[in-house]
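Consider the following assembly input.
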Amino acid sequence: GQNIDQPTEMTATEGAIVQINCTYQTSGFNGLFWYQQHAGEAPTFLSYNVLDGLEEKGRFSSFLSRSKGYSYLLLKELQMKDSASYLCAALDSNYQLIWGAGTKLIIKP
Amino acid sequence: NAGVTQTPKFRVLKTGQSMTLLCAQDMNHEYMYWYRQDPGMGLRLIHYSVGEGTTAKGEVPDGYNVSRLKKQNFLLGLESAAPSQTSVYFCASSSRDAQETQYFGPGTRLLVL
């Protein structure tokens, strides 16, 4: 079966760095997405990785290892507004997105 | 450019009632999707459409029907609502050239009593 695993909840301190991990098992693979979702709002696109390695975009970076079925989202210089759920999703061979349940990130002052 | 819009934003139904959720996008996207999001679970695909006049079943299609009569609109229908359909429903769209990146509407919160 197809499966996405990510931690349910994480806590970090304002100004610090946090890494949110995601492992995936899909039938075929066409890329890995990270979305941010604030409470009561729609998911918004953060990053897309299809090749191995690290993609940096400002304070956010996303890493992919296809051989390990593993990705992480790295958030630096955390701000209170980064408190949100972070959704990992893998694109399978049919170009369907398989979603994880999301990681709720709590930022403390 | 409003992006993806959904109506209504919130609705309460009694078991057995019917309703239609409307999704509209002004980005000329070919692909459109309906998801439901429940606590502790990932987004689950209900139905999707790859173009005007075409629809296909997703992961959890039972109890729902859809129609895509116009490219910009994707309707989700509940013929006989059940409490298990209490959820937040998100519509999304993507272009054929970048189908992997989906743009989401604000969601519809549905409570079935």
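The two ends of chain B are 36 Å apart (CA to CA). Ask yourself how this observation constrains the way the partners meet.
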